[in-house]
Write a structure and sequence with these properties.
The complex is a heterodimer of chains A (about 750) and B (about 350).
Chain A lengths: L2 H15 L22 H6 L7 H12 L7 H24 L8 H6 L12 H20 L7 H30 L8 H8 L2 H4 L2 H4 L6 H29 L5 H9 L8 H10 L4 H10 L10 H26 L2 H9 L4 H30 L2 H6 L6 H10 L5 H26 L21 H28 L2 E3 L3 E4 L2 H7 L1 E2 L5 E2 L4 H31 L5 H13 L2 H12 L10 H26 L2 H9 L4 H12 L1 H17 L15 H10 L3 H26 L16 H16 L1
Antiparallel strand pairs in A: 1-2, 3-4
Helix pairs in contact in A: 1-3, 1-6, 3-4, 4-6, 6-7, 7-20, 7-23, 7-24, 7-25, 11-15, 11-17, 11-21, 13-21, 15-17, 15-26, 15-29, 16-17, 17-20, 17-26, 19-20, 20-24, 22-31, 23-26, 23-29, 24-26, 26-29, 27-28, 29-31, 30-31
Chain B lengths: L1 H17 L9 E6 L3 H15 L2 E6 L2 H10 L8 E3 L3 H9 L3 E2 L11 H9 L5 E13 H6 L20 E4 L5 H14 L1 H14 E5 L4 H8 L4 E5 H10 L3 E4 L7 E9 L5 H11 L2 H4 L10 E2 L23 H5 L1 H16 L4
Parallel strand pairs in B: 1-2, 1-3, 6-7, 6-8
Antiparallel strand pairs in B: 3-10, 4-10, 5-8, 5-9, 5-10, 5-11
Helix pairs in contact in B: 3-4, 7-8, 8-14
Classes of the chains: A mainly alpha (about 750), B alpha/beta (about 350).
Chain lengths: ~750, ~350
């Protein structure tokens, strides 16, 4: 048995013998090691929890293998010990929960009929970890994944985490679509709901009534996906491939919408383009365009979503455009291709993974978006708001919500499938071990003009919106009373210095919780996301596609449904964490993980496998390869994952609106309350503060992670000779054209 | 291995930072609050000051609280559910999610408060009332050359086409109150005729019940049908909006309070329940910009509050229209006969 397996076993014993097995009530250790805060061993010996005995037996069996020479049967035994231990662990956990719940026959089998147990705590967590590692190590001994302990363990951990925090809650909520509250199967009402005309109706084609909510959502998501991808691409090309002035400013500006709390863009759009909005007023007075309510409905929601999500596409495509090896484009030009045909035949095809990922993100984001349709939707209904109100509205129809969630899920997964088809099995490798000293080609003029024409108005609109948001916090009532005031900031963020420092403002507690949750969950998100991406692209194991599919699942599930699912799944033992800060962290990690995975996959697709293989040939293990070779090249992906999850922790509403508790309230939940109460001033002021906080956070992340060094020549300062060279190069082509 | 341990360690560290279950020791109370943040805060701090019991308060809309209480039913986290429109409270009572209680304060309460208590079979009690009505934007109405609307019938004026907002009764208790009010006031057939005619003037069925008041105060719509106190909030702020109690008569909501079944701090929940019915506790609404009418006869009525005595109130049947069977029937009918119709 190898040293690391022994260490894993030690962790298991610590968790079983020393650390309290259950989650302590009130954080007290009363009654240690028996009673409430008892350890598993003490509870088994005293006869209080006999169902924990099989888990201990698994640890004993594993201990018998310590010190033996490595033989095939050791690996086989370890696999069985780990597997049986895990089965015993989960079986007792789900069988014995609250009084009168759980699985009675299984509980009786464990000798705990009619008994109850609280949620699992640190002891259980450590033991679980140990059992899992033993199974994975056993598999590695048997030669799985080239016998690499790190790979098998990482796969095991990722699968367990996704199973527990994505699949299990989602299954819980979907179960409520199929099963009535009394436990009987209800297929008839399920299909009746699923095929209802409110979902699939086509009334809008014939005129008059509204279309089904499914079509609305689909149209909106496709439009958002396409427009955000194109904007993101135009923007990335302009920033990286032109000498356009003001690039840095533009780069900063396009990132602004991403760090804006939801509701705020919608609110600003209403203040600008609503019937009494500022721009509407100007247009009505100067140009004579009558005031209308066009902003409420598809146009408004689309506008808000494009403003909000195009920056994500931009971030994804920046990485891709940067990663395209200039030498390929140079090769094309050397072979006589003009700018435009180089772009069309070389650059564009290489952009495809980035484009596909950017579209997918925009599409899925739009489907899951909740804040903008809520504020600007008008009579244009989409699935996410419909689900929210099916859960919390006057109808209180959880079954309906689950059915709608299934439709939403089907759309998202469909998009995922189409994306896979489009990319096919072509190679997109551009970062290879061979030296690449090319200079990125400049954009052809026509593409430059098109990009600029699209981007400049968009950036201007963004600027105006942010002016509204910035000013809104400092005036009494935006649009009505423009007296300057600090009142909103004083209400939210007053600090009393008279007696030490006392954070008096109403917004402080939620701000502190938000920052704490974001600071903990974003590194975890990035870590789990990138490791998963590495496993998915670089390792071959059974169930790889299924795993990839499951990672997208939590992203496809709208936040509202995920929130309710988390409450249903984690309010009862074995995992009892509602009302804690931990549930917020977990919800964020597993909701944002897909972005880490997607950007990791897009980044890894560009890095030649020969780099890993060279590292492996030099006898580095896969962890070393990951750390020394892959991670440094993945810095853009790492930044994307960190920035995105940090920002999403601060800005998301729907996923957490059910999960916030009195003790752990979040900034967005607080802002939504302010908006509901009509206190736009405070809401906008708080949002401005959040924007500043996120900007600082992003800057820290970028400085902390640093840039990827690809060993390419920098774009040289334009020399006087340059035009001559170009002329010489293109001369033959010009002559040929004659 | 290093990375793996780092992962494990950070999970543990996270768990250690947040893992402790919410305090449920004696001397605390978990309150789900269904009114505006400020009022919620005022209530929880006042109670904390008076009794020394630590209150952990979460503010959510009535529907959200209901959804949460239902989701947590097998392992309740909350103790008391204070505020929010009465229907979800009745629904929770019907499903046995809340606890029966009879307070010594009952003798001082208005009749409508006690009738809510009887309708809920002792499981919910009225703490404030608010009448349904509408708010109109004075500037927009003047621009259109209309007289100030005073009655339900005035809202059918063709000049108000696409200029009335009301919430969708499927998502909002306010709008369901309108539906039930119109049916009780005019009879079911005439009531639906009215709603059908109103449908032509409605630009948008909003999601949230109070949203039309906000839209009217911003000038996004000329008329918003809301609870009158929701319009008063904006009028007091100085917005160009005027609240109206319709001349034909109108229905009302009874904001309620329930003790959650299986509450971990049952005794404290009862203490809060008794305290919340005292005149002093009920006087906390007005300073927090909530202008509902309190249920204790001795509590002062805020001067800005719409005077219930000056309005024509219908005899609202909370038992019938609060039951889930009648609600589902009316909502299905509304969906089919009103919302699905072209304008």
């Amino acid at each position: 048995m190898r040293a690391s397996t022994r260490l894993a076993l030690l962790i298991g014993w610590l968790g079983y013998v020393l650390i309290p097995w259950y989650l302590p009530q009130d954080g007290s250790l009363a009654g240690y090691p028996f009673g409430q805060a008892g350890t598993a061993l003490a509870l088994v010996l005293s006869g209080a929890s006999p169902w924990l005995l099989p888990i201990g037996l698994a640890l004993v069996a594993a201990s018998l293998l310590v010190g033996r020479e490595e033989r095939p049967w050791i690996g086989r035994s370890l696999v069985w010990i780990g597997l049986l231990g895990l089965i015993a662990f989960f079986a007792q956990g789900f069988a014995i929960t609250l009084p009168d719940q759980g699985i009675p026959w299984l509980a009786a089998l464990f000798g705990g009929a009619g008994q109850a147990q609280p949620g699992m705590g640190f002891g259980a967590l450590m033991t679980l970890f140990s059992l899992l590692l033993m199974m994975c190590h056993g598999l590695a001994y048997r030669g799985y994944c080239r016998g690499d302990l790190f790979t098998t363990s990482a796969i095991g951990i990722v699968v367990l985490l996704i199973g527990l925090f994505v699949f299990y809650p989602v299954a819980t909520i979907l179960q409520s679509a199929l099963v009535e509250s009394d436990g009987t199967l209800a297929l008839a009402s399920f299909f009746e709901r699923l095929l209802s005309p409110t979902i699939w109706g086509l009334g809008c084609l014939g005129g008059g009534t509204n279309c089904g909510v499914a079509w609305n959502t689909l149209i909106l998501a496709v439009l958002t996906g396409v427009i955000t991808t194109l904007l993101g691409l135009a923007c990335a090309l302009l920033v990286l491939r032109t000498r356009m002035p003001g690039k840095r400013l533009m780069r900063a500006m396009t990132v602004l919408p991403i760090i804006t709390p939801p509701f705020v863009i919608g609110l600003a759009l209403i203040l600008l383009f609503g019937r009494s909005g500022a721009i509407t007023g100007i247009l009505a007075e100067w140009v004579g365009i009558p005031r209308s309510r066009w902003i409420y409905g598809l146009p408004g929601v689309l506008l808000a979503q494009v403003l909000a999500f195009a920056p994500i596409a931009f971030l994804v495509l920046m990485g891709t455009v940067q990663g395209i090896a200039p030498s390929m484009e140079e090769a094309a030009q050397t072979l006589g291709a003009k700018h435009w045909s180089t772009f069309r035949t070389v650059t564009w095809p290489l952009l495809r993974p980035g484009l596909a990922n950017a579209f997918l993100l925009g599409f899925v984001e739009s489907m899951a978006d909740f804040g903008n349709p809520l504020v600007l939707g008008g009579n244009f209904e989409v699935l996410s708001t419909k689900i929210f109100f099916a859960v919390v509205g006057a109808a209180h129809n959880q079954g309906q919500a689950a059915v709608l969630a299934i439709v939403l899920l089907a759309f998202t997964l469909g998009a995922f499938w189409v994306q896979q088809r489009w990319l096919g099995t072509k190679s997109y490798t551009t970062v290879a071990g061979k030296g690449d000293s090319g200079i990125p080609a400049m954009l052809p003029t026509s593409a430059k003009v098109i990009s600029a024409v699209v981007i400049v108005p968009w950036v201007l609109l963004t600027a105006v919106i942010y002016a509204v948001i910035l000013i809104g916090g400092f005036v009494k009532a935006m649009g009505r009373d423009h007296t300057l005031t600090l009142e909103h900031y004083r209400t939210g963020f007053a600090i009393d210095f008279s007696n030490g420092i006392f954070f008096e403002g109403a917004a402080w507690p939620s701000l502190f919780t938000t920052l704490k949750v974001a600071a903990i969950s974003s590194p975890l998100t990035a870590l789990i996301g990138l490791i998963t991406a590495f496993l998915l692209t670089r390792q071959h194991f059974a169930g790889r596609r299924t795993l990839e599919f499951t990672t997208m699942l939590s992203f496809a599930i709208p936040g509202t449904v995920l929130g309710v699912a988390y409450i249903l799944a984690f309010n009862v033992p074995p995992v009892e964490i509602t009302g804690t800060g931990l549930i917020l962290v977990l919800a964020f990690v597993f909701r944002n993980m897909p972005v880490g995975v997607r950007s990791g996959i897009a980044g890894l697709a560009q890095i030649d496998k020969s780099l890993d293989e060279a590292s492996m040939t030099l006898r580095a293990r896969s962890f070393t390869t990951l750390r020394r070779v892959v991670l440094p090249l993945l810095k853009p992906a790492l930044i994307t994952a960190l920035v995105y999850s940090f920002v999403r922790c601060i800005t998301s509403v729907s996923a957490v609106i059910f999960l916030v508790s009195a003790e752990y309230n979040l900034a967005t939940a607080y802002i939504v309350g302010r908006v509901e109460a009509g206190e736009f001033g405070l809401a906008i002021a708080y949002s401005s503060v959040l924007i500043v906080v996120m900007a600082v956070g992003i800057a820290l992340i970028q400085v902390g992670v640093g840039e990827r060094k690809l060993g390419r020549r920098a774009v040289p300062v334009p020399k006087p000779k340059a035009p001559k060279q170009t002329a010489r190069l293109t001369k033959p082509a010009v002559e040929a054209a004659k | 291995m290093q990375l793996k341990f780092w992962l494990g360690a950070s999970v543990l560290a996270t768990a250690a930072m947040f893992g402790s279950a919410p305090a449920s020791a004696q001397g605390s109370l978990v309150m789900y609050c269904g009114v505006q943040e400020e009022w919620c805060r005022a209530m929880s701090t006042a109670f904390e000051k008076e009794t020394g019991i630590k209150v952990a308060m979460t503010r959510k809309s009535a529907g959200e609280v209901y959804a949460q209480v239902k989701a947590e039913a097998s392992n309740p986290r909350g103790d008391i559910w204070w505020g929010g429109t009465g229907d979800p409270h009745l629904q929770a009572a019907e499903e046995g999610l809340t606890e029966e209680y009879e307070s010594a304060m009952n003798k001082d309460l208005q009749d409508w408060s006690l009738s809510q208590w009887k309708a809920a079979k002792k499981r919910a009690i009225g703490i404030y009332a608010g009448a349904l009505g509408f708010g109109f934007n004075t500037q927009l109405i003047k621009e259109k050359g209309l007289a100030d609307p005073k009655c339900w019938a005035d809202l059918l004026n063709p000049k108000l086409k696409d200029d009335v907002q009301v919430a969708d009764p499927n998502s909002s208790g306010t709008a369901y109150t309108l539906l039930a009010t119109v049916v009780q006031l005019m009879g079911e057939d005439k009531g639906f005729d009215y709603l059908r005619a109103l449908h032509k003037n409605v630009s948008q069925y909003t999601k949230s019940g109070a949203a039309p008041a906000k839209a009217a105060s911003l000038g996004e719509t000329a008329v918003g049908i809301v609870f009158i106190h929701d319009a008063v909030v904006f009028a007091v702020q100085g917005d160009p909006i005027k609240p109206v109690a319709p001349c034909e008569g109108t229905g009302y909501e009874i904001g309620s309070m329930s003790i959650i079944k299986g509450a971990r701090n049952l005794e404290n929940a009862k203490k809060f329940y008794d305290w919340a019915l005292t005149p002093a506790a009920q006087a906390l609404g007005a300073p927090a910009k909530s202008y509902q009418v309190p249920s204790n006869k001795n509590a002062p009525i805020p001067p800005q509050a719409p005077k219930m005595s000056d309005m024509k109130l219908i005899n609202y049947d909370f038992v019938k229209y609060g039951s889930s069977a009648e609600r589902t029937r009316l909502l299905t009918k509304w969906d089919k006969e009103i919302k699905a119709q072209p304008k």
